[in-house]
Amino acid sequence: MSVLEADNVRVAFGAAEILNGVCFSLRAGEMVGLIGPNGAGKSTLLNGLSGILTPDGGMVALDGRPIDVISREERAQSVGYLEQNAVAHWPLRVDRLVALGRIPHLSPLRRQTAEDERAVEAAMAACDVVALAARRVTTLSGGERLRVMLARVLAGTPSLILADEPVAGLDPLHQLETMKLLHGLTRQGVGVAVVLHDLTLAARYCDRLCLLSQGQVRADGLPIEVLESDAAASAFGVTLKVAETGGVRVVVTAEKVL
Amino acid sequence: MRVKTPPIGGVTVLFAVGVGAAFFASLVIGPADIDAWRIVKGLFGAADETANLVAAGIRLPRALLGVMVGAALGLSGAALQGFLRNPLAEPGLLGVSASAALGAVIALYFGVMALFPLALPVFAVLGAMAAALVIQGLAGRDASMLTLILVGVAVSSFAGSLVALALNLAPNPHAALEIAFWLLGSLTDRSMLHVWLALPFIVAGAGLLLMTGRGLDALSLGEKSAQSMGVDMGRLRMLVVFGTAACVGGSVAVAGVVGFVGLVVPHLLRPLVGHEPARLLPLSALGGALIVLIADIGVRLIPSQGELKLGVLTGIVGAPFFLGLLLKTRSEMR
Amino acid sequence: MKTGWFVSSLAFAVVLFALTGRPLMAEPLSSAGPQRVVSLSLCADQFVLALTPRERIKGLSVLANSERYSPFAAEAQGLVRHRATAEEVMALDPDLVVAGGYTRRQTVDMLTRLGVPLLSLPPAELGDVPDLIAQVAAAVGNPEGGARLAAAFTSALTRARDRGMVGALYRPGGDLPGPKTVENEVIERAGLTSLAASLGLQAYARVTIEELVVHRPDVLIVDSRHDAGPSLGRQILFHPALRQMSAVHGMADVEMPIRYWLCASPRSTAAISLLTDKLDRLDGQGGRVQ
Q1: Do the bridges between strand C252-255 and strand C204-206 make them parallel or antiparallel, or are there none, so unpaired?
Q2: Which of these CATH numbers, 3.40.50.10260, 3.40.50.1980, 2.170.150.40, 3.40.50.300, describes A3-256?
Q3: Which are the contacts of B44, defined by CB distance < 8 A and separation ≥ 6?
Q4: Does CATH number 3.40.50.1010 belong to domain B60-329?
Q5: For an engineered disulfide with B70, which of B107, B123, B288, C217 has Cβ 3.0 to 4.6 Å away?
Q6: In the structure, what pLDDT confidence band is assigned to residue C26 with cuts at 50, 70 and 90?
Q7: Closest CA to C137 of C128, C125, C145
Q8: Nearest residue on chain A to B221, alpha-carbon basis
Q9: Residues A90, B276: C-beta atoms closer than 8 Å
Q10: pLDDT interval class at C27 (50, 70, 90)
């Protein structure tokens, strides 16, 4: 059972405090949505959780052990990170790009084994990019590229995935497919934390929502409770209503908060 | 469908064979008319006095240096391009080579080398390191193409001017005339001493650079993703900086600045390895060795009044290539 | 207002100039010979020092008193030296300037334009020296001294017996002085066959170590091994192959000073006798001769 926790994390860039006393947790098998207005610190929190950034205060722990004690490779084997607007700098073949996801598991001299190859194949199948295997990643559409990048993360067989705005800029079809894919992963036991701006998607697919505003956690709980809370209203500056239509949950912006 | 890791490809073997052939050609071509068989025997001391001396004392060091310098330059070009994620990066354009030349010039003309010979490559490595650190500081983090070129021009011009100044201030009055060697490179009249001076640094540098493969592969996805995969960016940076400094310092100390090899070779060979930075490293070493050996043979075959410098040939091919590359990536330079 | 100031200053300067009597055009040489002789370069220094009374030499090149480069170094001690720019030369107020090898074209042109009497000595070989002596002697008003010097030079222009050995002078950077150079003629007059000549090389040709090994001369002559300061070119003179040729293959290694043959000078014949002596000591000895 994997769990990634941020305990009273503080991150400051110079005089500006981006995160101040943030507590957050992600468990295997659950889908957590990180929501909040722009500049709330959501990406920064993900960076801190994934080990890219070292917090100035507080602690991040994986399975109870502080991240700075665990080796980078060990941490990378458990925690996968999908960057916002992930791109490849060189026009790599899709299958070779996905194979890069095995890097945390490869020791300096060890080459890829059959086990690695299987993980890569499984990841590509899960993200439905097998047909794109021989294509160059720079020739793909936005939606296809995202699925390939996600496959790369999956190839590392992480137990926890942190995704920073994976559906930004995608058309509705691909947004839906991506969220379904991520949700499906949680059903297989992977824990997924995803930063989202689209509150409807957040309400539909997440088991839990964490609302961040101005560097602090303002609410953490079931989607409906968080979205219709006063904290959400004051954070976004608008009151939100969660409704259901045709069996699908939607979130509407009701009124500006005075 | 199996996603196999490609083995040491046929391309690598092909290039290795090519380097072997060029090495042999470099051994048997020279101003003196000695047939190949005599040269081969001469390498083992089994021919007549003259052939022995020419083969082992003159042709052999020259061919060895061709391989060493070419491999060092090709490898460091590939590593720099992979690390900076920029196809315009290479030690010459970034001023690393000129700075290495400055170190070497200070060691040689001001008597330091007379005290201990290794001062020559050591000072060159220090010069290269200084430039690499400046580049890293000014243009390291996701620098645009324009920033990188500008920083490179600045460092390169500055170092080049200092080389000229140092040569003019040197005790020996003929020093100023030797600037052509330092800024254009040459392998003529080098001896096994030069091979031994450069070898430890080039080998060490190559070792460090070959260790960057996996990190550079991960870096294809960007710094953040690479870090999330467990890549230690600080360690990777040190490997690239020290490895480049050692390779370039060792080469420039004994052969002067041979330009454009580190730019052209990785760029041409990249499509052959699917644009993967790790696989490009060893192939660029071979490609660089091949290019320099061929250029050095060309220098001996093209009739000219004075001595034709290596950098003239690599420049004639490399500079238009660089221009073409600039035009092609013009849109990315904003 | 400003223009007025400018014009007045200009007029003042012109008047001042005219009053001090410094002519812009030179006066013709007096029959006693020029009183203020300036030599423009090392090669011209030699002739000026050989033929001009000391008190009339007002300027020599910067290398004139260098033991390494000038055979007249002793005679040049205590005399004024300059860096051969037109400005410095004009400041010495010469009534004769002698220019020789290694002068800047622009400097000579400017001095000519300024109307300074200038004697330009052409590039010379040993055989031209008596004629150059005569020219300079005439210009400085010392024809009898010139005739004596020329005669002494000619009689010192000896030729040793043919030693049946091939010799080559190897300069830093791998230059081999060939036919039509002073160095080559000295080598031949010392009794050696010149390698450069037998290879059909012209003037100063670049020869690689490899070519030197293949055409191995019997005598390798070196004049700059202990030059001022290290350089790449000088390093070539220490190439292991050259050492091997001396140590193992019996090539003789002879060191000569550079000053006698750097220019075609009245004392260049000293090189012939010096080299002849060293080669005489070689015969039957082999190896290095200091």
Answers
A1: unpaired
A2: 3.40.50.300
A3: none
A4: no
A5: B288
A6: very low
A7: C145
A8: A88
A9: yes
A10: very low
Angstrom distances, CA of residue B37 to CA of A143, B52, C122: 64, 12, 50
Put simply, the answer to whether B58 touches C209 (Cβ < 8 Å) is yes
- Coil, helix or strand for C43? helix
Cβ–Cβ of A86/B225 closer than 8 Å?
yes
Residues from C contacting B (CB-CB < 8 Å) are 172-174, 206, 208-211, 213-214, 216, 227-234, 236, 239-241, 244-245, 248-249
Look at residue C23 and tell me whether its pLDDT is greater than 50.
no
For an interface test with A, the pick among B3, B83, B145 (most A C-beta atoms closer than 10 Å) comes out as B3
Q: Which residues pair with A10 in a beta bridge?
A: A20, A57
Using the beta-carbon criterion (under 8 Å), do B50 and C216 form an inter-chain contact?
yes
pLDDT tens track, chain A, 258 positions: 689 999 999 999 888 889 999 999 999 999 999 999 998 899 999 999 998 989 999 999 999 999 989 999 999 999 999 999 999 999 999 999 999 999 999 977 777 789 999 999 999 999 999 999 999 999 999 889 999 999 999 999 999 999 999 998 898 999 999 999 999 999 999 999 999 999 999 999 999 999 999 999 999 999 999 999 999 999 999 999 999 999 899 999 888 887
Find chain A residues with C-beta within 8 A of B207's C-beta. Answer: none
Domain ranges of chain A: 3-256
The token pair at A176 is: 């839906």
A106, closest residue in chain B (CA to CA): B214
How far off is chain A from B226, nearest CA to CA, in Å? 9
Find chains touching chain C: ≥3 CB pairs under 8 Å: B
ipTM of this model? 0.92
pLDDT digits over B282-318, tens only?
A: 999 999 999 999 999 999 999 887 789 999 999 998 8
Please state, in angstroms and rounded to a whole number, the distance separating the CA atoms of residues A163 and A45. 11
What is residue C32's three-state secondary structure? coil
In this structure, what DSSP letter does residue C194 have? E
Q: CB neighbours of C122 closer than 8 A, spacing ≥ 6?
A: C128
pLDDT band for position B49 (50/70/90)? confident
Give dist(CA B127, CA B246) in Å, integer: 10
Task: Nearest chain B residue to A77 by CA: give it.
Answer: B229
Contact between B32 and C209 (Cβ < 8 Å): no
What is the residue extent of each domain of chain B?
Answer: 60-329
